[in-house]
Amino acid sequence: MNVRKIVRVMVAVSLIWGALTTGALAAEPIKMGAILPLADSTGKDGSRSMELAVKQINEKGGLLGRQVKLIMMDDEMKGDKAAAALDKLVTVDNVDIIVGGVGSGATMGAIPGMKKYGKVVVWIGGASGKIEEAMAGQDWFFHLHAWDYQQGALWETGYLEMEQKYGIKRKKTFMAYEEGAFGSGSFKAGKPIYEAAGNELQGEAFKSAALGGGDYRSVLRHAKEFGAESFIWTGYDKDALPIMEQAKEIGFAPGLFVGSPPGWPVDFKNTPLNQAVMFYSYWSEAQGVKNKNSKMYSDAFRKEFKDDPVTYFGPLAYTNIMIVAEAIKRAGTLDNAALIKALEATSYASPMGDTFVFKKSKIIDHQAFASPKIMQWQNGKAQVVWPWEVATAKLIYPFPAWDKRDKAAVPAKKAKGEKK
């Protein structure tokens, strides 16, 4: 072979190799479409945690030889916004899978579009049982959150154990709830549980500050007039500070003061009004003391954003992306049927402190969730007070009167007759 022929062969090989490598480098990324309320603390923690997970995945080579691209949409906690976001993600952005979700009302708005397009959806929020009913028979829907009736039953177990341990009183409970699907669904699910335990539950709706409301004085006065031993409000993070300010204004301080938002505002930890406020959750940064995966997540989040995650939707959103990523690797494809089968084989040790495994709930085929916990704000930190095996602090009880806040840090005593 002469020199000219050798040169031609080398040029041809070079062109072929260039085409192959250029094609590999230009391979379309795997697109994950996320829907979150970005102005809410849950959405802020959730979006950043998803970005962190995607960054870690891409630094390790991506998935199926392709990089992962996260496309984020804001639902503003509104059903019409969630529906529009879903439509854009599928028809314009051509995403491969749908993730995210927080509010039940927004989720309800997105459900028609989910059914229309049939994309695999791995959803982290929306606790209303109405969502579960709407998703009956949808094998492409995977849910990473407890339903309202499941939450209520598990938290009731915690209260019963705290009654024995600390002697708390809650025969008369008042629930103030936001008027949408999230709040009204929680009240409807909780009422039979409370009454079955021999407790009287009275409830009243309010308009959340997240949706244009913000005056809770009437509902707080009604709770005070009722003589509530336990007060629970179910709403969103924008309700937290004004509820506490207005409770102080009218001198309302029941023995148990409980907030039940999906997440707390970032600055809530800095206000003295938070002391001894209890809440329901699935995760606290304090869990890092006992759980290595939780600590690794918190450390990575802090390093990346120079900030702390304040809601459980942070580690839950991280879990969301990692569960999807592992399923894509197992499936070896983005084909819906293969991806559904791979998701069904999920066993993920989450920074939430639990291993997520999909099982059938009352209605849907695929649900996995972390163990609910009862927590309390103590000296600016969210502490786990139940279950006992993961508790990071003792309960402060009763909720201190507003003119006696200097004694608020004293933990509750054990009930009479209880062994130390």
Beta-strand residue percentage:
15-25%
CATH architecture of the largest domain: 3-Layer(aba) Sandwich
Radius of gyration: 24 Å
Number of strands: 14
CATH first level of the largest domain: which class?
A: Alpha Beta
CATH superfamily of the largest domain: Response regulator
What is the chain-wise order of helices and strands?
Answer: HEHEHEHEHEHEHEHEHEEHHHEEEE
N-to-C span: 93 Å
Whole-number count of domains = 2
Biggest sheet, spatial arrangement of strands:
7-6-8-9-10-13-14
Q: Summarize model confidence as the mean pLDDT.
A: 90
Indicate the CATH topology of the largest domain: Rossmann fold
> What's the total helix number?
12
- The level of helicity is 40-55%
Low-confidence region ranges: 9-25, 415-420
Shape: globular
Biggest sheet layout = 7 strands, mixed
